[in-house]
Amino acid sequence: GAVVSQHPSRVICKSGTSVKIECRSLDFQATTMFWYRQFPKQSLMLMATSNEGSKATYEQGVEKDKFLINHASLTLSTLTVTSAHPEDSSFYICSARVWVAGDSSYNEQFFGPGTRLTVL
Amino acid sequence: DAKTTQPTSMDCAEGRAANLPCNHSTISGNEYVYWYRQIHSQGPQYIIHGLKNNETNEMASLIITEDRKSSTLILPHATLRDTAVYYCIVRAYNQGGKLIFGQGTELSVKP
Fold first, then answer.
1. Nearest residue on chain A to B45, alpha-carbon basis
2. Which of A29, A91, B27, B94 measures 20 to 30 Å from A110, CA to CA?
3. A45-54, A76-85, A100-109, B99-108, range with the lowest pLDDT
4. Is pLDDT of A106 > 60?
5. Residue B111: C-alpha distances to residues A48, B10, B11 (Å)
6. Tens of pLDDT along A80-91?
């Protein structure tokens, strides 16, 4: 299957700082990327949908000014947690939707390994 | 809100078949059934998906009832490495539908 990477895999930061997480599709072009957040013992919660070259669409209740998403190319999306606080500590997972040239019906979605954010 | 209901947890003996049920009684005609699994502290892994016919791949089989209101994921010979949370998701295939995760089933494969 297609490979999605995330960097860093884990990060610890002080309260008030900003943290950037990168999501890359390594062997395919992803027109759409998704960002999820997962708290311990809970399911994944979709935060936002990011289309290459356009503004991200945020789910209800997700602060767009706090979670900045940039999708500048077909292989890279970034999530920046601004002024992070301890309650932002979570497991952040990105996902990329595969776009296959010449096959508009192919629409599979693959996930990265996740980034563990701990805010002290 | 997730459109599926699954048992919270299940156990399975190593080497035996694991049958994971999922109810999706409000599924629409253009929605597929997807199964993903998440091993602890990793990203979800795609398993299989289907519309109305039964599907099989190298990982699992998917059995969808004729009325499409429920389905079963079958792992034919479960191993300890199959211990994970399994998510059943319904999504429109070609219309940009988002993958919305429910609570899933925590499968424990025991020796």
1. A111
2. B27
3. A100-109
4. no
5. 40, 14, 11
6. 999 999 999 999
Question: Which residues of chain B neighbour A95 with C-beta distances below 8 Å?
Answer: 43-44, 99
Asked if A44 and B44 come within 8 Å (Cβ–Cβ), the reply is: yes
CA–CA min distance B41, chain A (Å): 8
The lowest-confidence range among A36-45, A74-83, A92-101 is A92-101
Looking at beta carbons, which residues of chain A come within 8 Å of B55? none
Sheet containing B18-23: give its strands across.
B18-23, B70-75, B61-64, B55-56
Q: Give me the pLDDT at residue B1, please.
A: 52
Using CB atoms, which residue from B41, B44, B100 is nearest to A111?
A: B44
User: What DSSP assignment string belongs to A10-35?
Assistant: EEEE-TT--EEEEEEESSS-EEEEEE
Is pLDDT at B2 greater than 60 in this prediction?
A: no
- Helix, strand, or coil here: B82? helix
B8 contacts chain A (CB < 8 A) = no
Question: For B104, which of A1, A4, A43 is closest by C-beta distance?
Answer: A43
pLDDT tens sequence across A26-39: 988 888 899 999 99
